[in-house]
């Protein structure tokens, strides 16, 4: 196919791994499209996107403030961000937009409406974000990470697709860590940015877990000033780890926040988890995300305020001594996996762009 014959798509996804990796997974399925990316300066997209797709950044502070105050609406003054997206759409003859919710979706959807092109929005959480709820009416289809989220969109076309994960999750990935086959591996993570409160809990209990022979890989994020406080030969820390597929495939279990991205990956890799939902997530959505995994028996979930290091210490020791229980929980996690989520969204986009 000649380069100029490719359809042109804009992906508006910004901020956290939970918003970016599902969008990158969809982009991986659209190799026959010219893809432009819309983000903001100084967020994760500036690291993850430019090597693969041209990135345009918007200053959306004004929009963030309006959404935080609940004042955005159909009549709101069109800010410069929207004009910039309209220009981008016109200049590049963009035929459709894919967005994963969050602030960046607002100017993208408004601009798409002005230009008369279709938008597919994906929202991965059990309680969809405010922007998704407000602007869904202007989208061609709302793709959902959790089937229960459908009730927020009584008048829109919705489809439950789970959440796309990177292609690497769909095949076995080698892990570059010195681990014997029989060594239990605990992976600790706090979403794409790390979780300082979880990190503290782990450091206060890790020693007893390591004494059983287990290895811990702890993804700490980049903002924890006490990251070097605990050290042990079986304890590995990384601020951010690229090969999540390899790590979760090998993990016996995870201790994690309950972001939708990580939960979906745990389902695909069949990894049981001790979940500690982020207590300040919008509308407490992580607690609701976690519920689905708890209900099928794939995870246990503790509110951070109620979880003492003593309870966590005992739970982990019990899990380390219960391989049969872990493999049963792993199988239950797999019942929540949707392996073709990215393909389903790519198909929706192809249909929307061609009609
Ligand atoms: C604090 C907060 O509000 N977080 C939200 C954010 O996701 P946030 O990015 O915090 O968390 P998620 O669990 O959704 O996604 C994390 C992603 O980063 C990847 N990862 C993480 C650590 C690492 O070292 N390497 C790596 O690749 C994970 O594999 C996963 O793909 O958006 C999600 C989707 O709307 C929400 O469900 C989360 O509640």
Describe this structure as you would to a colleague:
- With 355 residues, the chain is α/β, with parallel strands linked by helices.
- It folds into two domains: 3-162 and 339-354, Glycogen Phosphorylase B (Rossmann fold, 3-Layer(aba) Sandwich), CATH 3.40.50.2000; 170-334, Rossmann fold.
- The chain contains 13 helices and 13 strands.
- Strands 3-2-1-4-5-6-7 form a seven-stranded parallel beta sheet, with helices on both faces. The protein has a six-stranded parallel beta sheet with strand order 10-9-8-11-12-13, sandwiched between helices.
- α4 (80-91) packs across α5.
- The two termini are 20 Å apart.
- The mean pLDDT is 94.
- The structure holds uridine-diphosphate-N-acetylglucosamine.
- Residues 16-19, 21, 124-125, 189, 191-193, 219, 240-241, 244, 259-262, 265, 278, 281, 285-286, 289 line the site of uridine-diphosphate-N-acetylglucosamine.
- Uridine-diphosphate-N-acetylglucosamine (UD1) is lined by residues 16-19, 21, 124-125, 189, 191-193, 219, 240-241, 244, 259-262, 265, 278, 281, 285-286, 289.
Number of domains: 2
Q: In whole angstroms, how far apart are the ends? A: 20 Å
Give the % helix.
25-40%
The low-pLDDT segments are: none
Main location: membrane
Domain Glycosyl transferase family 28 C-terminal: 186-342
GO biological process, one term: peptidoglycan biosynthetic process
Family: Belongs to the glycosyltransferase 28 family. MurG subfamily.
List keywords for this structure.
single chain; 355 residues; alpha/beta; Rossmann fold; 2 domains; seven-stranded parallel beta sheet; six-stranded parallel beta sheet; 13 helices; 38% helix; elongated; binds uridine-diphosphate-N-acetylglucosamine; cell wall biogenesis/degradation; glycosyltransferase
